Amino acid sequence: MRVARIIDANLNRLTEGLRVVEDVARLALADRRLLAGIRRLRTQVGEDVRQLRRRFIPSRQSETDPGRAARFDRAGRKHLDDVLFANFKRAEEAARVLEEMLKLAEPKLAAKLKAVRFELYTLEKQALLAISQDQPQGKPQTPARPD
Fold first, then answer.
1. Mean pLDDT calculated for residue range 116-137
2. CA-to-CA distance for 100 and 120, rounded, in angstroms?
3. Is residue 71 included in any domain, yes or no?
4. Domain limits for position 40
5. What is the reported pTM?
6. Number of other CB atoms surrounding residue 54 within 10 Å
7. What is the spatial distance between Cα 135 and Cα 40, in angstroms, rounded to a whole number?
8. Which residue, 39, 46, 40, 47, is CA-closest to 21?
């Protein structure tokens, strides 16, 4: 049961992080190449974990999760870049946890998640390059508040 909750939570983290990164790449950066890579990866992950997700949702205990309180959201984000890179890290870390948790029960899926993690590292670098090209030297980063 405890491992099931870890898997469920990290499936959510992985897919939520990918969605945020995809939306920033699409709507804020308008970077077609980055968007294509993220969207492909998000779709692949969705297909790979669809059955697994259904298997682990019943173990979810979000009402009593001790990490649910607002005090656990310590990340101070001031710019859109902060949101983007926090969600890359969120997805990378979730992929690593899933990889480790699934090594015994689902070794093929664990190997796929390792590949996902390394693809995320590559896409994160691509996003950093896209942002650095998008922002002239000395200009402040885009605020993370709505327009």
1. 86
2. 17
3. no
4. 2-61+78-134
5. 0.81
6. 9
7. 26
8. 39
